[in-house]
Specification:
This protein is of the alpha/beta class. Helices cover 40% and strands 15% of the residues. Helix 1 runs parallel beside helix 2, helix 3 packs across helix 4 and helix 5 packs across helix 6. The protein binds adenosine monophosphate and manganese (II) ion (MN) (3 copies).
């Protein structure tokens, strides 16, 4: 199997490396097919593509879209789409403007527990103010000494039930799959092992996704256990989904898995890149 990484982040969302540096790191790690999948933003694609193609390797357009399903925040990957598609661009722009409003509310919620200035602080870590993420808040809270690392900030402050977490209206599964398809791309469920869904709910989501025209599922992910890989490999076969794999690399020090350092797809699955 070629070395493929179809999930990572640059400074165009909440990654630590600019798109071109990220692409250079992927080449250095031997990645032969790369996709950059920033959250709700596709501004990094052309820089990453240039570096990868100049290095003689392949690049495919990608994005990771933030949606809500069953009351949870879920991520949908889009691949191999036309980056000029107006429907897709307008949809992503809408999510980004919602992110600013949410970040302001997070700042207010943190102020209530005595953490002042978090909105402005998080924005300093966001290259693009419209793509402010909880990861940027986490970096700021580490900077001011509230927690020792990003992981602890999430656990103590910015996950559901914690003081800096605010409800937010994301788009629907139908919206995200529809935009990717409008742009001629392939949609995949990102890291299904991360969602706190019962087996029945997971199947409901997969049924709905398939009915909407979704085609892929991320079987191998930097955030998946070996059990997750075998479970979602089985579900991919059962549903006839294309199988995807990616590190979900955000930067060294914040990610366990480096670019391209993911396990191979389990046998008997159709790799999603066959559809690109
Ligand atoms: P957002 O899209 O603004 O809700 O932020 C979600 C991002 O925060 C994810 O894409 C990860 O980069 C990061 N993240 C989520 N949960 C954790 C965690 N437990 N530890 C570290 N980073 C996390
Ligand atoms: Mn992220
Ligand atoms: Mn994700
Ligand atoms: Mn991701």
């Amino acid at each position: 199997m070629p070395i493929v990484d179809l999930h990572c982040h640059s400074t165009a969302s909440d990654g630590l490396l600019p798109p071109s540096d990220l692409a250079r790191r992927a080449l250095a790690n031997g990645v032969e097919l790369l996709s950059l999948t920033d959250h709700d933003n596709i501004d990094g694609l052309s820089d990453a593509r240039s570096v990868v193609e100049a290095g003689g390797m392949q690049f495919v357009n990608g994005v990771e879209i933030s949606i809500e399903w069953g009351g949870l925040q879920v991520h949908i990957l889009g691949y191999a789409f036309d980056a000029a598609c107006e429907v897709l661009n307008a949809g992503l722009a809408g999510i980004r403007s919602g992110r600013i409003d949410r970040a302001r509310r997070m700042g207010d919620a943190l102020a209530v527990v005595g953490i002042e200035g978090a909105f402005a602080g998080a924005l300093r870590y966001a290259e693009n103010a419209t793509l402010v993420s909880r990861a940027h808040f986490a970096r700021y809270l580490v900077e001011i000494g509230v927690c020792k690392d990003v992981r602890s900030v999430f656990e103590s402050y910015i996950v559901p039930g914690k003081p800096g977490y605010v409800e937010h209206q994301w788009v629907s599964l139908a919206d995200a799959v529809g935009w990717v398809r409008s742009a001629g791309g392939v949609a995949a469920i990102a890291h299904p092992g991360r969602y706190k869904l019962s087996r029945t709910e997971m199947r409901q989501m997969l049924d709905e996704f398939k009915m909407l025209g979704g085609q892929g599922i991320e079987v191998v992910s930097g955030s998946h256990s070996a059990d997750n890989v075998s479970l979602y490999g089985r579900l991919a076969r059962e549903y006839g989904f294309l199988a995807s794999c990616g590190s979900d690399f955000h930067g060294s020090g914040e990610s366990y898995v480096d670019l391209g350092r993911v396990a191979s797809l389990p046998a008997g699955l159709v790799p999603i890149w066959e559809a690109f």
